[in-house]
Design brief:
The chain has about 140 residues and is of the alpha+beta class. It contains three helices and eight strands; from the N terminus they run H-E-E-E-E-H-E-E-E-H-E.
Length: about 140
């Protein structure tokens, strides 16, 4: 085996490693996430999920977005879309942080659909730029 071959193998190995790392970091269903059934909808951007491992209700605030509050225009429509998309379904909760009220702040995946993004696409939420630092926030 010549030097060129050894170098080529090292380059392929590094390429494979970085490709695998990128895939793992972009996948929604990994160690950083947990799943559970959505048992409550507070409003368009806050839900309650029954954690399938701990069997405890967890109040979850959707990461990086904000929807209209009660009494504001389109509040009901945002809440309805959230309900239609996730209520009674098992979702994947990708935890990003905890807010000052102790709520889990997360991205919510239901049937490979990112709820956070769907609300923005529907015009029922806006990106909360101050708190949203993930690449998806830019798009």
């Amino acid at each position: 085996m010549g030097k060129g071959s050894k170098r080529e193998i090292m380059v392929r190995g590094k390429t494979f490693f970085y490709g695998l790392l990128a895939l793992l970091l972009s996948a929604p269903s990994l160690t950083w996430a947990w799943s559970g059934e959505v048992v409550g909808i507070t409003d368009g951007d806050t839900i309650t999920v029954l954690n399938s491992k701990t069997l405890k209700d967890v109040k979850v605030r959707l990461y990086g977005i904000d929807t209209p509050e009660r009494g504001q225009a389109f509040n009901k429509r945002a809440r309805q879309l959230t309900s239609k998309t996730v209520y009674g379904k098992v979702v994947e909760v990708k935890v990003m942080s905890t807010d000052r009220y102790g709520r889990t702040v997360a991205m919510i995946f239901a049937d490979r659909t990112l709820l956070n993004e769907e609300l923005v696409k529907a015009g029922l939420a806006w990106v909360y730029e101050f708190y949203c630092s993930e690449p998806i926030c830019e798009s």
